[in-house]
Amino acid sequence: MHLIIPESYEPKLSVKETQKAIRYIRETFQDEFGDQLNLSRLSAPMFVDKATGLNDNLNGVEKPVSFTMADMGDAQIEIVHSLAKWKRVALKRYGFDLHEGLYTNMNAIRKDEDLDNYHSAYVDQWDWEKVITREERTLDTLKQTVRTIFKVIKHMEHEVWYKFPQAVHHLPDEIHFITTQELEDRYPKFTPKERENAITKELGCVFLMKIGGELKSGKRHDGRAPDYDDWELNGDILFWYEPLNQAMEISSMGIRVDADSLRKQLKLADAEDRLTLPYHQMVLNEEVPFTIGGGIGQSRLCMLLLGKAHVGEVQASLWPQEMIDKCEAANIHLL
């Protein structure tokens, strides 16, 4: 358990007022976000059949919550870690056209998560996916989409200010772009987390690109599943978060793998056995569209916009009693 206690923390909203603000942010953001990216809302599963290969493997070490169902025989059912792969299949299944997309409320359980101010075992995010062409699988497409998402987040800051002026946390006016290799070159003696903190403190907000592959040092900046993002065309949106004096990740996103990048990344990850799974076969045979997509943390966004010290102030989850007691003593009221 890792916990940061801000000095002299005073929440600007009561628990009841915070609940009103959460509802306003969630409802307003998803409508504007959907409009700006031409996305339609879809319902999505909370669990999938392991045999489909649709679940997100994250860093490859986290184990999903799993169970069996009375009418499903011996099928192993898994609570999703995210909907990164499911969305791409859904775009094909529901007949989405070029430059159309979907978003959904994704709820997941990540039981192996290390709990802290940002991380909970309960994950709630807007998962989204959009159809693009093969020719649009470029950094320009990725950056343009990132700028649109940043613009919507900035607009939400102004919207929240109108409703809750005493509570809004002000954000930088610009997002900057840097690769993981450029970051390692810039801070060669820092850990990946220290690099993220240093660059976001300097620039305010960055999109950190090309996550998953090895750097010149032979190490990875961070882990990424090898079978949804193209590691050359992905990244994280990071804000410098003054209340906790560190970076906050709001979104992980990227252009999705094609057949070539899927084969390459599965080989690097020593996971070529996945190539026989139904989802992976669809990618190899180009039976699913080329897409860009990602996730935007709902509780993280509420936390960011309201200047909260702990994600537990904006979502109901389970926490160690020691964390609950320390937070309560510091005026941090966990739901």
TrEMBL record:
<dbReference type="InterPro" id="IPR006195">
    <property type="entry name" value="aa-tRNA-synth_II"/>
</dbReference>
<keyword id="KW-0061">Asparagine biosynthesis</keyword>
<dbReference type="GO" id="GO:0016740">
    <property type="term" value="F:transferase activity"/>
</dbReference>
<dbReference type="GO" id="GO:0140096">
    <property type="term" value="F:catalytic activity, acting on a protein"/>
</dbReference>
<keyword id="KW-0547">Nucleotide-binding</keyword>
<dbReference type="Pfam" id="PF03590">
    <property type="entry name" value="AsnA"/>
</dbReference>
<keyword id="KW-0436">Ligase</keyword>
<dbReference type="GO" id="GO:0004071">
    <property type="term" value="F:aspartate-ammonia ligase activity"/>
</dbReference>
<dbReference type="InterPro" id="IPR004618">
    <property type="entry name" value="AsnA"/>
</dbReference>
<keyword id="KW-0963">Cytoplasm</keyword>
<dbReference type="GO" id="GO:0070981">
    <property type="term" value="P:L-asparagine biosynthetic process"/>
</dbReference>
<dbReference type="InterPro" id="IPR045864">
    <property type="entry name" value="aa-tRNA-synth_II/BPL/LPL"/>
</dbReference>
<comment type="pathway">
    <text>Amino-acid biosynthesis; L-asparagine biosynthesis; L-asparagine from L-aspartate (ammonia route): step 1/1.</text>
</comment>
<comment type="similarity">
    <text>Belongs to the class-II aminoacyl-tRNA synthetase family. AsnA subfamily.</text>
</comment>
<dbReference type="GO" id="GO:0005829">
    <property type="term" value="C:cytosol"/>
</dbReference>
<dbReference type="GO" id="GO:0005524">
    <property type="term" value="F:ATP binding"/>
</dbReference>
<keyword id="KW-0028">Amino-acid biosynthesis</keyword>
<feature type="domain" description="Aminoacyl-transfer RNA synthetases class-II family profile">
    <location>
        <begin position="23"/>
        <end position="320"/>
    </location>
</feature>
<protein>
    <recommendedName>
        <fullName>Aspartate--ammonia ligase</fullName>
        <ecNumber>6.3.1.1</ecNumber>
    </recommendedName>
</protein>
<keyword id="KW-0067">ATP-binding</keyword>
